[in-house]
Amino acid sequence: MFPCLCQLCFYLLSAIAVAVLLVVALVLYKTKPYPNIKRHKDEETFLDPRSIKTVAFPSLEESPSLELSVIVPAYNEELRLPAMLDECLAFLEQKSAGNPSFTYEVIVVSDGSQDATVSVALRYSKKHGAEKVRVLELIENRGKGGAVRMGVLSARGRHLLFADADGATKFPDYDKLEEALKQLAPEWQEDGIAIGSRAHLENDAIATRSFFRTILMHGFHFLVWLFAVRSIRDTQCGFKLFTRSTARKLFTSLHVERWAFDVELLFLAERLKVPMSEVAVRWTEIDGSKLTPFWSWLQMGTDLGMIWLRYLVGAWRIAAIQKKEN
């Protein structure tokens, strides 16, 4: 009886080992080591609504020409976008008035929106001028990570902030991120990330969420810690500030274009030993989220496992390391 049981266990373990090897082989075969960043010709320009002319976007590889670029990814956000832009631009205008050396731009990236998101954003561009507000209209939906990347690649700032279109984070908390980033990286040529965080609000969130959503939240946080990011408690807050140097390294290496892209960004930052600071921000949940609690979190959990596996077996590689070696 015992020899038969041992033999059965041996066959079972052998089958598992073969299955794992087949999965690894399939991942290696199907996966390209570096991201293939495609950009349609129409996505290389923006409309200046005052002159009714199209103008070419600059490149992230160029030297910066202003202080801050704010990237706002937006998918069907015609209803929530105005409140966010009102608060954002009022704050930036006030900051610029008090400090003439502070210059900025806001890039709204419409991620294949089917509603009036582009029209809404263009009204702000016409009001404030295309030097301050630009609209990047993506031909097709790429996902939030893909939209943020396209905006980053088109930015002129020494520092780059991406902020969610729902306005859940109070925009004046930018000052806290700016101060934290200056402590990490006084110059834009240095590396650093200041990460807006809602970790201090976790107890309040648990009190107002259902038991099921609380379990999902803790499960996701555990998977992030297990597979990817150990040093940051809140990886998903849509309020992160990068130096231009860091943005160049991370966004040219990013593979994931949907919800879990934040995790891969911070995973890459840890691998590249980029200095990071987690900064508590004010945050309010806004109605109209595109996330569905179960399926979106299941997709993100799957993405986390694949991020870990693909980097572990070498199917994905970090473009910034390859560039440095060459």
UniProtKB/TrEMBL annotation:
Tell me where in or outside the cell this protein is found. Endoplasmic reticulum membrane
- Does the keyword Transmembrane belong to this entry? yes
Lineage: superkingdom: Eukaryota
UniProt GO cellular component terms: endoplasmic reticulum membrane
Q: Describe which pathway this protein belongs to, using the record's wording.
A: Protein modification; protein glycosylation
Give TM segment ranges: 12-29
| CDD domains to which the protein is assigned, alphabetical | DPG_synthase
EC numbers: 2.4.1.117
Q: Where is it mostly found?
A: endoplasmic reticulum
Its membrane topology, per UniProt?
Single-pass membrane protein
Known catalytic reactions: a di-trans,poly-cis-dolichyl phosphate + UDP-alpha-D-glucose = a di-trans,poly-cis-dolichyl beta-D-glucosyl phosphate + UDP
**What are the UniProt keywords, alphabetically?**
Endoplasmic reticulum, Glycosyltransferase, Membrane, Signal-anchor, Transferase, Transmembrane, Transmembrane helix
Q: What is this protein called?
A: Dolichyl-phosphate beta-glucosyltransferase
What species was this sequence derived from?
A: Drosophila kikkawai (Fruit fly)
